[in-house]
Design goal:
Length: 373
Amino acid sequence: MGTLIELLDQTELEGVTQPLQRAWTLPPGAYTDADVFSLEVERLFNREWICVGRVEQVAQPGDFLCVDLPAQPIVITRDRSGNLNALSRICLHRGMPLAEGSGNARRLTCPYHNWVYELDGRLRGAPMMEGVEDFREKDCRLPRLALEVWQGFVFVNLDPDASPLAPQLSGLDRLVGNYGFQNLVIAETLHFDSPWNWKILVENFMEAYHHIGTHRNTLEPLYPSRHSTAPDNDGEPWAFLWMPGAQAVAEDSVVFPDLTADERDGLFAASVFPTFLFAATSQNGVWYQLEPRAHDRMDLKIHVLLPPAVADALSDEERRGIRELISAIHIEDIAANEGPWRGLHGALTVQGRLSTFEKAIWQLNQYWVGRMR
C-alpha cells in the first residue's frame, strides 16, 4: 500500500479539487484499486466517526449489538449502570469473537475457553489460568472505542484523539432538527448484498440528477431533479440534499408534527462522511447502514424509521407495503450501482465532469481527497 499520490495520478486529483463548476469525478482507480481501499481503512475508517447503530437497539441494561468495522469487529453494550460502551469484541486470549448478532446478556463469554467479560469490558474470569506468571484478571480489559450519540444514532471512532463529532454537525442539526430523529425507532429492515465499491452507493444516494433516468417513473414526478439543491457545508464532514415536492402531501399522512409546509411536501437525503446516509419525507425516515468489506463489496441494510406509536400501530399489510416500496426504489438504484461498477473497470474509462446538480458529491470528494492525502 502506497500513499494516495503514489496510487492515483496527481493531475487527476487536482481535477477533483477544482471548484464545482470545473470539477471532475474521482478517477476510476479510486473505486477499483484494492490498495486505495486499504488506504481508506487506515485514513478514513480507522480515524473517522462511523455510525454503527441506534440507541433503541441497545436500550436496556444487558443489551448488546455486534458490528464489523472494516478493520475491527466491535460490540456496543448497555452495561448494568445504563452506560453505553463501544468495545473490541475479540477475546484477549486467542482472538476469538465473543459474540455475534444482538441480544441481552449479563456478561460476554468467549465460546472458545469461557473467558468472561463484564459489559464495560473488564475481564471477570479466566478459567484454568493458575500458575501463569504476571497474569492478573483485574488488569485485563477489552479495548474501548470513542462513542457519541447524535440524533439517536450511535457513532464510534477507533482514533482516541478524534475531535468530538457533535460540533462538526451543528450545521446539519439545523437542517434535520424538525424531524426528531432522536425520537424514532427502526420499524422495518431490508438487507442487500452489494458487490461494488461503497463510494458508488454514497454518490448515487447524494444526488437527485439520476431521477431523470433511473427513477423517471417513480421519484422524478414527485421530486423533480432540476429543483434539488445542496447548501454549503463550510468544509464540515457532511452533505445535505434538498428535493422539493411537486405535489402536496395529505396532512393525515404526516408523522412528524414539527415540519414546515415545505418540509411536509419535500424529501431530503443527508450524509455524514464517510458512510452514514439517512433521508426522510414527512411519512418516514430511512437509514442506509453501510458496512464496507473490501474495495469491491459491502453489506447494506436499509432501516425504516418511524415514531414508536406509528411503528407499533402498523398492520401486516402496511409493513408489507413499506417494504415493497423501499425495495422497489432500491432495485432501481441497484442498476445505477452495478452499471458504473462495470464501467469503471473499462480500459478506456476516464474521469467525468460533475454537474452542478452533483454538489454533494463534490463535497464528499473534497473530504475524501483531504483525508486520504
